[in-house]
């Protein structure tokens, strides 16, 4: 069984996991539940080579949406990904001509960041059920809000003037 320890912060969500064979894996995703990569070469308008640090060895991102950063181009569905070749097939074409490209991209399936971490660790595609796992969630974001007294008024026992309790 997988054991995942996930901490969601304001910018990043970190995951440290133990696999069923006892290996330790680490993954980091954006807390907005997106992964970033760079298109390093456009093979054709619907086929690109990417550079990423996702740490996956199988195609788990088919069905995700690719978005070119710093453009108004609409998101494009990912049809297939070949991780060993770093090659991605898209449903529709990207703007531009084939050749060398350095476009920054984000991909997402619009799931919560801990779910994305679990998919990366277990290499579970969108259309498959997760394997059995135990998940421990923490939130640096929530802890920091408590420590910094952000949000609702703190409980009376945390206030300086205990006479108002």
Protein model, in words:
The protein has helices at 113-122, 140-147; strands at 2-8, 12-18, 24-30, 35-44, 47-51, 65-68, 76-82, 87-90, 99-108, 133-139. It is mostly beta strands and 165 residues long. It has 2 domains: 1-32 and 112-152, Nucleotidyltransferase, domain 5 (2-Layer Sandwich); 34-110, Thrombin, subunit H (Beta Barrel). The strands form 2 sheets. A 6-stranded antiparallel barrel has the order 4-5-8-7-6-9. A 4-stranded mixed β-sheet has the order 3-2-1-10. A hairpin with a 7-residue loop joins strand 6 and strand 7 (76-82). The chain is globular and about 65 Å long. The relative contact order is 0.24.
Distance between the termini: 47 Å
Low-confidence stretches: none
Oligomer: single chain
Total beta-strand segments: 10
CATH topology of the largest domain: Thrombin, subunit H
SSE order, one letter for each helix or strand: EEEEEEEEEHEH
Give me the side-by-side strand order of the main sheet: 4-5-8-7-6-9
Strand content: 35-45%
Task: Please give the CATH class of the largest domain.
Answer: Mainly Beta
The count of helical stretches stands at 2
Radius of gyration in whole Å, from Cα?
A: 20 Å
Largest beta-sheet details: 6 strands, antiparallel, barrel
Overall shape = globular
What's the domain count?
2
Mean pLDDT: 89
CATH architecture of the largest domain: Beta Barrel
Question: In terms of structural class, how would the helical and strand content be classed?
Answer: mainly beta
Classify the helix fraction into a percent range.
10-25%
């Amino acid at each position: 069984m997988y054991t995942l320890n996930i901490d969601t912060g304001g910018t990043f969500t970190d995951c440290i996991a133990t696999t069923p064979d006892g290996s330790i894996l680490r993954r980091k995703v954006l807390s907005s539940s997106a992964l970033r990569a760079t298109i390093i070469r456009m093979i054709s308008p619907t086929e690109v080579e990417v550079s990423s640090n996702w740490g996956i060895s199988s195609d788990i991102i088919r069905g995700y949406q690719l978005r070119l950063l710093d453009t108004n181009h609409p998101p494009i569905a990912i049809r297939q990904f070949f991780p060993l070749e770093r090659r991605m097939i898209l449903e529709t074409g990207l703007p531009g001509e084939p050749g060398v490209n350095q476009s920054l991209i984000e991909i997402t399936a619009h799931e919560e960041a801990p779910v994305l971490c679990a998919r990366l660790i277990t290499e579970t595609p969108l259309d498959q059920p997760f394997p059995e796992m135990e998940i421990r969630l923490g939130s640096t974001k929530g802890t920091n809000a408590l420590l910094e007294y952000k949000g609702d008024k703190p409980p009376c026992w945390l206030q300086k003037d205990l006479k108002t309790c």
